[in-house]
Design goal:
The complex is a heterodimer of chains A (80) and B (579).
Chain A (H helix, E strand, L loop, with lengths): L1 E7 L16 E5 L5 H8 L8 E4 L2 E3 L10 E5 L6
Parallel strand pairs in A: 1-5
Antiparallel strand pairs in A: 1-2, 3-4, 3-5
Chain B lengths: L1 E6 L4 E6 L9 H12 L13 E5 L12 E7 L6 E7 L1 H8 L2 E7 L9 E6 L2 E6 L8 H11 L4 E4 L2 H4 L7 E4 L5 E5 L4 H7 L2 E6 L12 H17 L8 H5 L4 H7 L21 H11 L4 E4 L10 E5 L5 E3 L4 H7 L8 H14 L3 H13 L8 H13 L2 H6 L3 H7 L7 E2 L2 E2 L9 H9 L12 H4 L15 H18 L6 H6 L1 H15 L7 H19 L12 H4 L13 H8 L2
Parallel strand pairs in B: 1-6, 7-12
Antiparallel strand pairs in B: 1-2, 3-4, 3-6, 4-5, 7-8, 9-10, 9-12, 10-11, 13-14, 14-15, 16-17
Helix pairs in contact in B: 1-18, 1-21, 6-20, 10-12, 11-13, 12-15, 16-18, 18-21, 18-23
Classes of the chains: A mainly beta (80), B alpha+beta (579).
Chain lengths: 80, 579
């Protein structure tokens, strides 16, 4: 198992109370779980997701999670 | 369309036919051309030869969506180079409806310390003394004006401009008459004050919306653009801009390690969640009252990214909290208290100062040890020094670079004397190129490569890699100069970068109004011409390649969490910034 810390932002917060809170949430996933796999585990509709940052780097949905990863997940956002 | 040429020496305002060479220009294209043509590059920005130009964008005043931008241009007392700063405000629409392509303010006032109001209506323009408004905060000034001129919008400079501070902006009224829509950057408010002009009342009573010369083309283009805005994920109703405001970026930049924190000493802020757009939306909901997200900055905006932030009792604290202001007075100062940030923004609006330059300056002052990072009361006390016009306040009011020199600070995040906005260049290399090479000084809006680097809009680019970033920024800077001419809000760039028909629609509406025949492929080319004029002005003003460089500390000081230095090469920077 890998343990990661997940933060959901903006409109994605509604899909998971813990990960959608300001402190995010710990999540456990089987070894070899991808980011897309994590969405399925947490009940986040993949079509709502625009991108994920793992430890500050944008990664593809097929990135395999590692123990201790910080995962930040976003819908389409903008500003300036 | 006409020019209104305002001579502050003779107190005359004369309507002129627009010369042929300016007819197909508007907004930034027009202000920058006029600065090049009418202001000697070596003029003192506050002296008799300086001028101020106010020009609505091409489609402002029409029924085009999100199109009430107005450009203010001149020589900057902050950078001492050319400056264009634009704002979204109903005043842009009013100027266009009055048939004014630009207001040109010139001449040295006869009586130092005496200020005037210019009242512009469809019947002409007249001067009245502004004695009553002089020295007063802009909230009080605008309240009084709205009572006297209920159908008008206002353009003003605040008390900081009267003190000739280089962080003073030009303030426009919002839809409710608040002093909240700013052409904030570069000190153009001080240029206005130096002309003895305190206020312009722009009253569109008795005028009609602008109708494009080629109405058929306009309508076709408008439909394409509206469709793109309403379908794109970030600009659609209920999308992030609408729901969380621009401060939705706080968490995004924090995750990316690119949220400048405590005077650009880190790219992550432990208090980010507390000042995020998400938290702001929660507070607005919890407190109720007048608070709202999704406010428009002008009638006809379909994006509506503005907000009204309430006090705990539901009454208004400030409108609005933008990402840049939130970051500058928040994370950049180590402050995680949204109420304190809102209060600081209120004071900035009231004094007539740029929230970005103010926050960057306070960050430098904290670095100097004047206050501790995280000390919100201390930050407010520094703003109060500006209000009281003390010796310290006058130093701070000149901006981050000046303050850094006054206190011997090495870590000063400025380019060409202008404070860096809310993206850490060592973590987002392309926006760094924009900061460094834009003729405006450090300005994120001049070439927003954050779109592909962080937001995955308009393609994708690795933010940490220097490869290709000079060209990416160059292309963005050129396209942006065109959008700054168009009168459209820069946020239409998000949908039109991804949706080709939206881009075509933007160009078609501009053609329909200006009588031009730009193809989509001409946008960057013509925008590039505008940027070239601006660079030529800066060269003539004495700027060299040495001004197109990052602050030195970013070359050797690693910024956590990515622990990167700024590594786009000088050669790449010169290739983009060369004239």
């Amino acid at each position: 198992m890998v343990k990661v810390h997940v933060y959901l932002y903006a409109s994605l917060r509604q899909f998971h109370a813990g990960a959608g809170s300001a402190d995010g949430a710990e999540a456990e996933a089987p070894d070899g779980t991808s980011i897309a796999g994590l969405y399925a585990l947490l009940g986040i509709p993949a079509e709502e997701v625009k991108q994920a940052f793992i430890n500050g780097r944008q990664r593809d949905p097929n990135y395999l999670l590692r123990d201790g990863d910080r995962v930040g997940v976003f819908p389409p956002i903008a500003g300036g | 369309m006409r020019f209104l040429r305002v001579d502050m020496n003779g107190l005359k305002a004369v309507v002129e036919e627009v010369p042929e060479k300016y007819r197909q220009l508007a907004g930034r294209g027009l202000t920058s051309r006029l600065v090049c043509d009418e202001v000697p590059a070596t003029a003192h920005p506050l002296g008799p030869k300086a001028k101020l130009f106010i020009a609505p964008g091409a489609v402002a005043g029409t029924s085009a969506p999100s199109s009430a931008r107005v450009s203010v241009g001149g020589k900057s007392p902050l950078t001492w180079g050319i400056k264009e700063a634009n704002a979204g405000t109903p005043v842009a629409q009013y100027l266009a409806r009055l048939g004014l392509k630009a207001i040109i303010i010139e001449g040295e006032p006869k009586e130092p310390g005496k200020y005037w109001t210019l009242v512009v209506t469809k019947d002409g323009a007249e001067f009245v003394p502004a004695d009553e408004q002089t020295g007063k905060g802009l909230y009080e000034v605008y309240r009084g004006l709205k009572e006297r001129h209920p159908t008008a919008g206002f353009i003003a400079c605040g008390p900081a401009a009267e003190a000739r501070m280089a962080m003073a902006g030009v303030c426009f009224s919002d839809t409710d008459g608040r002093p909240s829509r700013y052409s904030g950057r570069g000190g153009l408010g001080a240029v206005m004050a130096a002309k003895g002009l305190k206020l312009i009342v722009v009253d569109p009573a008795g005028t009609s919306p602008v109708v494009a010369t080629n109405q058929e083309l306009f309508k076709a283009g408008q439909a394409k653009l509206v469709e793109a805005i309403l379908t794109h994920g970030v600009t659609k109703p209920g999308g992030t801009l609408n729901t969380y405001g621009t401060a939705a970026l706080i968490n995004a930049l924090n995750e990316a390690g690119g949220l400048p924190t405590r005077n650009f000493s880190s790219g992550r802020f432990e208090g980010a969640a507390k000042i995020s757009g998400e938290r702001m939306a929660e507070i607005v909901k919890e407190r109720g009252g007048v608070g709202m997200m999704g406010q428009g900055c002008h009638p006809g905006c379909t994006i509506r990214c503005s907000n009204i932030y309430p006090k705990p009792d539901g009454t208004e604290l400030v409108s609005c909290i933008e990402y840049e202001s939130d970051w500058a007075l928040g994370a950049n100062c180590g402050i995680d208290d949204l109420d304190a940030i809102a209060e600081m923004i209120w004071h900035c609006n009231d004094l007539g100062i740029d929230t970005i330059e103010c926050g960057v300056t306070i960050g430098v002052a904290m670095e100097a040890g004047l206050k501790k990072f995280g000390d919100a009361a201390g930050a407010l006390a520094l703003i109060d020094e500006i209000r009281k016009n003390t010796a310290l306040g006058r130093i701070l009011g000149q901006g981050a670079a000046f303050t850094g020199r006054a206190f011997g600070v090495v870590r000063v995040p400025t380019v060409k004397g202008q404070g860096m906005p809310a993206y850490e260049p060592r973590a987002v290399k392309g926006i760094g190129v924009t900061y460094i090479t834009s003729p405006m000084g450090a300005d994120h809006t001049a070439g927003y490569t954050i779109a592909p680097e962080i937001l995955a809009v308009g393609g994708k680019a690795d933010p940490l890699s220097p490869a290709g970033k000079a060209d990416l920024s160059g292309a963005f800077q050129d396209t942006t100069a065109f959008i700054d001419m168009s009168g459209y809000c820069l946020f239409i760039a998000f949908p039109i970068l991804d949706i080709a028909s939206g881009f075509e629609g933007m160009v078609e509406t501009v053609n329909a109004v200006l009588g031009t025949s730009f193809a989509a492929g001409d946008v960057a080319k013509f925008g590039g011409e505008i940027v070239k004029w601006e660079r030529q002005f800066n060269r003539a003003a004495g700027m060299t390649a040495a001004h197109d460089r990052p602050p030195e500390f970013m070359r050797y000081e690693k910024c956590p969490p990515h622990n990167q230095v700024y590594d786009v090469t000088d050669e790449d920077l010169d290739r983009i910034a060369g004239v």
